[in-house]
């Protein structure tokens, strides 16, 4: 059964959803660049966890199309709140509060969803990802965007297992039709929430990555989950998703092993921006809980 009311329409209504917590400076630095899209977005919904996460007076030219809503802290809870608030949208583009999109990103996203009615999620090609290093300064990110934007668009859409949570667009008719939600059993940072939601959607259509959807993930380090909590989630969340059958053992097991090895090897010479000791401690606590039959993603909420 297909839930598709917008196929064949010339105009798709596009909303951007941004969940944010404790990162007001970077949020308000990145938001104005959405004004540079070749196809303007119809609505921006920002879900914050506290009043001081967003300054409505700083929204400037975006204020007329931006709504600020609130939810209890937690990426999945905040993204579900956004889903509840975009009742008129045909496409919802989830962006991290530190993700810069190329000027053609929204226009190309609409093209994909219009041309391929079986696509239920699209995700972009990240030209630089600061999450893998110390982070990328805003000006450097903008320079990368400008450099890439000068080149003619190339490449097409390729099938992928999941979208990348920092930039993924979803077909809202499918989400509404099947009542899909982010799993709030993945608390706080919601490690692998993008995989879980992607695989829910994948039961009803295709997920693609496009080289025409380009952006830069600044990887800002403020407002992140503590090392021990993230380390626990690196074990608990993939195990939970395997049991739930939204992540295959073929994808989950290598990821668990990569994190364990990286945290163990790099503990002696950790990167300044990574709490390797905390992550490894969280890994070990999760493994102990796994052996004892107590492993659950929610346990991170009581870890120090």
Automatic annotation (TrEMBL):
Residues 18-123 form the Glycosyltransferase 2-like domain. CDD domains: Glyco_tranf_GTA_type (cd00761). Keywords: Glycosyltransferase, Transferase. SUPFAM superfamilies: Nucleotide-diphospho-sugar transferases (SSF53448). This is Glycosyltransferase. GO terms for molecular function: glycosyltransferase activity. Pfam families: Glycos_transf_2. Its EC number is 2.4.-.-. Gene3D superfamilies: Spore Coat Polysaccharide Biosynthesis Protein SpsA, Chain A. The keyword DNA-binding does not apply. The lineage of its organism: Bacteria, Pseudomonadati, Pseudomonadota, Alphaproteobacteria, Hyphomicrobiales.
